[in-house]
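Q: What residues go here?
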């Protein structure tokens, strides 16, 4: 039996009732198999874009949370890559896109400051 592709593994993880832990596990496996941080973030960002119009936010939230671990927008000890391989400009764009989407998905968030949404 052939090994599942990265896309198939992510699809499988997204089918779980609580997909975050499964997605994080897939991200760790792909990293350990040699996928670069930039490739992994682009892969997950593709899945994020596919989920934008879904009524159930469980999947998109799991993808966004996993992206935080991939790009390093989490506690340093939890980041999947200890030194960011993503140029700061790209890393910021991914983070900004994730947070702008989060703001649109949660209309009660109304203001922004240098630390994030309030």
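A:
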């Amino acid at each position: 039996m052939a090994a599942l592709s990265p896309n198939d593994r992510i699809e499988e993880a997204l089918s779980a009732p609580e997909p975050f832990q499964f997605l994080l596990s897939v991200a760790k496996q792909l990293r350990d198999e040699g996928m670069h941080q930039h490739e992994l973030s682009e892969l997950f960002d593709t899945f994020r874009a596919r989920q934008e119009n879904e009524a159930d936010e469980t999947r998109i939230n799991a993808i966004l949370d996993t992206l935080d671990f991939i790009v390093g927008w989490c506690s340093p000890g939890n980041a999947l890559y200890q030194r960011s391989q993503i140029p700061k400009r790209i890393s910021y764009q991914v983070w900004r896109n994730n947070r702008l989407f989060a703001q649109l998905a949660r209309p009660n968030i109304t203001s922004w400051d240098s630390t994030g949404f309030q």
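A: Context that may help when evaluating the design: The chain has one domain: 19-108. Residues 105-118 have pLDDT under 50 and may be disordered.
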